Amino acid sequence: MGVNMIKRSVGRPKTLSREHVINTAFGEYWLHGINNVPVSKVALSSGVSRPGIYIEFKNEDTLKAEVLKKYIDECAMPMHKYYDDYKKYPNQLLNHIYTLINDRNDNIKLSDNLKYTSTEKPKNAIGCMLIRAILLKFTLGPVSLKVISDFEEYRLKQFKKYIINAKNDEVFNKNLDPDFYAKYLQWVFASIQIMRLNKSPKDEITKIINASLIPLFKTTKMLNS
Fold this sequence. Notes:
Mean pLDDT: 90
Structural class: mainly alpha
Largest sheet: 2 strands, antiparallel
CATH class of the domain at 61-213: Mainly Alpha
Number of helices: 10
Radius of gyration: 20 Å
């Protein structure tokens, strides 16, 4: 990610760091929601001009897509990769749900990936920026929508893999349809994000999600508040 010269019709040329703008938008989108931050706000927070951002990224959709790619690369992919190895990380699903509800991962390891562990969540941000964007995906432009759709396809494969392995380990009910319940898990995560945004009490969210997990497990598994 280099530094490009943005020439203005008036005044001196100004340098614009593509990476700096993406990082700034990353924090703003996570805190406020991807559709709630105008380019002018990103420009102001970045200390660059609004026209400069449009010259660098062509349009707002491309900027949003670049931020989503960054979130997927640093936060989502490292965590979802662990669904690959059920034997080593059998509690990945419950741990993932718990951290989304509680915004913390005390003594819970969702990923050892350095990008994941070094990414700081903005103070007061609620839940997962990506899930929040997924809830609004059809309001986004085609470039952003493609980024989200590609990740959703990957996530379904990871959930399906996890469900099959949990069934083979006799932790999940043997009659579960992996394709259906992979989509069901996407709904579970979306529901958590919606309840978080609606400021539902965390103990209430936990009770609702515990009820939603009953069809999956052979024996009752309970999340702690």
